[in-house]
Records
---
Amino acid sequence: MSRLAGKIAIVTGASSGIGRETAKLFAAEGAKVVVGARRQAELDSLVAEIKAAGGVAVARAGDVQSEDYAKALVGAAAQEFGGLDVAFNNAGMIGPAGPTTGVEEKAWNEALAVNLTSAFLGAKHQIPELLKRGGGSIIFTSTFVGHTTGFPGIAAYATSKSGLIGLTQTLAAEYGPQGIRVNAILPGAVDTPMYHAANNTPEQRAWLTNLHALKRVGRPAELARSVLYLASDDSTFVTGTAQLVDGGFSITRA
């Protein structure tokens, strides 16, 4: 039996990388999916791919920094499919790089808005819809950076992504009695466009690859499998966790 049969899901940051693979996997496992990101063309191609494989999906393009967009995604799930069971708040960005003292306030605020505030806004409007169906699962994409490992030069990224863990724990405690589970995944390096943009030389990629115990970076489809676990009934007693999916980055010292 499909692991998300009869479920309705939202996936943000769905135009590429982890979000795109997760949306495809959710649909393959029986969910009806609302996919969101800024780029309409990429979302349209994703929906076409899902439908060609026999799945069900609709796209809504927009900016996750907007509360109206958070409302629109939930509205699409309710109007198109009848409700909401799963939300994967995955949209994110690296943000400003370099010494912290050189980071401009505008760039700092944008990173926090995209990585952290958007997740808060998403959950704020997803929770009432989840409660109508007796609960559900919310998943955030955090990172090991700023949690198990400190990296120089990416303070905004580390701070905003670490904040998601606090949000995860608070929401899990607040809404657990009402049947809502909330968890975060903490990926290591994953072979996505964002990874290549931040590591644009062979030397940089080789250095980062070697920091993983598995001596390779992850594949988006591998991360999607971890998200599926948290979205499905396989994890009905799992909530409030920050789950490392980092290829052993956090424990590697050689």
Note: The chain has eight helices and seven strands.
---
Amino acid sequence: MTDVLTVIGVGGMGEAIARRLGSGKTVLLADYNEATLASVTESLSAAGHHVESRSVDVAAAESVRGLAEYAASLGNVTQVAHTAGLSPAQAPAEAILAVDLLGTALVLQEFGEVVAPGGAGVVIASMAGHMVPPVAPEKEKALAHNPPGDLLQLDFISRITDANFSYPIAKQANHIRVRAASAHWGRRGARINSISPGIISTPMGQQQLASEVGDGMRAMIAMSATGRQGTPDDIASAAAFLLGPDASFITGTDVLVDGGVIAAVKAGNPD
């Protein structure tokens, strides 16, 4: 039975992960944007990959469940990369919370039911989740363990109306949810981690740089140790490690791939 790499969200990072890891596997691509999905499917197929595709709405439980069941019907679901998300430059707070927070919880739940023993998953979070104070313990418990369908109704989540605040909160919730999901995935002999990219040169990243927060982002790049934007290939390299055998003792954690931005911010870099 063939191994299946499922990539949810096939923008810059998702496509890079599929290209890096897809050889010799069935690659299942899933996205809400059907034009993007068709384009990437055609490109990867032309490059020799065995590609299947399916439209998905990650904020809809039945859609995510259907995707997970379809992935399992194709073979052993050995690798899952969830990259789908919205940024404040793309959507209002309500949509960001639905896709980035609820959507991630649904993917973790449904793919935790079908991932193969020895398999692994990664969720693309964000360094933004490291830039807000930790939530109170009772709120963290709710974000970790409440059923996905209840998350958007949580008092402290439903009151968020600012897109620039909803995004880091959703990404911090991703870190929390991945930690909690590691036990569920572990019962199947599988691992799950998150990656927190910094400022990456993707269409989403370029939109953010062109927005009202662009100057602040450029300042963070300037103060970082690497002094550059990241590339989708930088994220694909980290995903390849976390999804591969060299990371067999790593689960339930977040890996910052941000060029040193958070380190500089927290250290109060005098330069």
Note: DSSP finds eleven helices and seven strands in the chain.
---
Amino acid sequence: MADRNPSKQKTPMREQPPGERVRNFEEVPLGYSEDEAVAEAKRCLQCKKRPCVAGCPVNVPIPEFVKLVAQRSFAEAAAMVRRENLLPAICGRVCPQEDQCERECVLSKSGEPVAVGRLERFVADWEARHGGVSVPQKAASSGRAVAVIGSGPASLTCAAELARAGHRVVLMEALHAPGGVLAYGIPEFRLPKRIVGREVDGLKALGVELRTNVVVGRTVTVPELLAEYDAVFVGTGAGLPKFMGVPGENLNGVYSANEFLTRVNLMRAGREGGRTPIVARRSAAVIGGGNTAMDAARTALRLGCKPVYVVYRRTMEEMPARAEEIHHAQEEGVEFMLLVAPTEVLGDGSGWVRGLTLQRMELGEPDESGRRRPVPVEGDTFTLDVDTVIVAVSQGPNPLVPRTTEGLKTDRKGYIVVDPETGRTNVDRVFAGGDIAGGSSVIDAMGAGRRAAVAINELLKSS
């Protein structure tokens, strides 16, 4: 089935033109047509060793589903993906395939790998357009119950797997809408909320009970849940913002990226009549170089800021954001200021931001991350004229559950310590996974949620 002489480049995906998309929050990539998906699938060499599968945290049978796409068996391809990946429409859009399955693709040695993520998105969207998402079969009721805290990718996966195993599952979300970081942290132009809603609806169809506005640690505690449920899974994420520790960070017009994106994504701050408005007045500087920084910068553009700067203390080569996100930001007009770091946020005398003092940097010896450490260039500072500053330097683990669960072990950074193979914590019947346990991506969180579900199921069957 595979083409013996595949193209060295991926089949291009159509996108909104940059000049149009900066004026809306609609999704930027438009997805493959059936013919485009088939053309891309035919590039796959159908390797016997299947190195791409080893690069997938949830072990999707990539060559097999890609072969089905090449044969135009789209429904069968979607069903095959969904057996291992319960959130394919989401993963196909936001997972870093270039660092996982696609990195292992044999074609990447002489050109571009098979576009696994684009094909995964295609089959999930095709399935939704042609009769909706199929609901996996469930085992008979076990009579056991599990509380799942949070509704991000780790929790959604854990809840679905446990529901399929026949357990009663109650999913508890602190905010008014489910989805966790998928809903509050990723803008509509990268991950439309209807896609998140579609996957949550699939969870409800499995019988999972969803409770919003439940703040575990305040409304109810983990010890109280253990008195009612047979096990608890903690997937509360890493939504604790970190700031730079420089003078002026308390001025009006300074936002954490977490607050900025949550207001726009969930509270409609970017829409007319929004009840929690973002005051993005004229120009903005986003501090950081990760995907969250790209999301914040591109969102600020859509709110009317111009210019928008990404301020990063290293060079483009060290920037941790996905290459696709950097490319989209550049296309849309975001300006990158590299090898600079803020030393002070400047005020206008009435409590509002008027600018940043920036220190020029140079790269020294590698640090613990393996990247060259930025070192200040003595005496070389300048002022950047902006009135909005968005800090996207880092986020820490949500501390509420650990603080209110006596004896729960955390590491020095506050992440819950778990057995990486099972998600078990040191507290009996309590499991955790995803960003709260040090996860790094949507698909990694899903893998952690699945492993925890397997361990919880074994515990419930043996007790």
Note: The longest strand covers residues 353-366.
---
Amino acid sequence: MSRTGSNTVLLTGAAGSIGTVLAHELPAYGHRLRLLDSKPIDADDTVLADLTNDAGSAALDAAMDGLESVVHLAAIPTEAPFADILRVNIDGTYRVFDAARRAGVRRIVYASSNHAVGFTPRAPMVGVDVPPRPDTYYGLSKVFGEALGRLYADRYGLEVACLRIGSFAERPTSHRHLSTWLSHGDAVRLLHAGLSTPDLTYAVVYGISANTRAWWDLAPGHRLGYHPVDDAETYAAQIVAEHGQPDLGARTEAFLGGEYTDQRYDTPR
């Protein structure tokens, strides 16, 4: 089914770092937005709801009425105790997908993460077809979301795009960011592609800018209609001057997940 970008889109997690940028910039691409978060938002079409409880689920059902598309960003955006990840990132994501199914929503664009494959060894042009190797409970929750999207695409016919977002920031600030950076502008272009690409069934793509030192294959994103324009290499000389050269023998340099693979993220015994 073709998308023109003219339908109203429910944006969950609209008060978060990515959501705030999208809420401001996506309307320029022709998308009307309904903004949902557990925090109040100063905008015209908003829904105040906590997706982890029954009252929030009822508000979510009402918010989805008559919509065709959902962008699901709402989540704990970093590592946290498993009970919290389970409640917010896993059960909350299930509630969004199932509410979309019940409401007849046609498309979900899901904010996954590179940490779904964080324990994959670094290599040139890693594809989206590598096995899941989450580096944290957070990464595990993103593996769940991708698998849930696959189930709902196959069983219920939802159109699902899973975006393995890299390092979202206004500008890169570390050696790792030279490979993993996703600029604000490219994030908007990525989400627009997920919402507007025609004939989507199910797709997983990496969400990074057009970085010269990229580890991840952007070809699946190109097929989705995502064509990033920013490159972290613009900042490379400044980053090297500030931080020196990285220790290539460090564990955090060996895997795609970077610092999330460090032993300080181990669960205490």
Note: The radius of gyration is 18 Å.
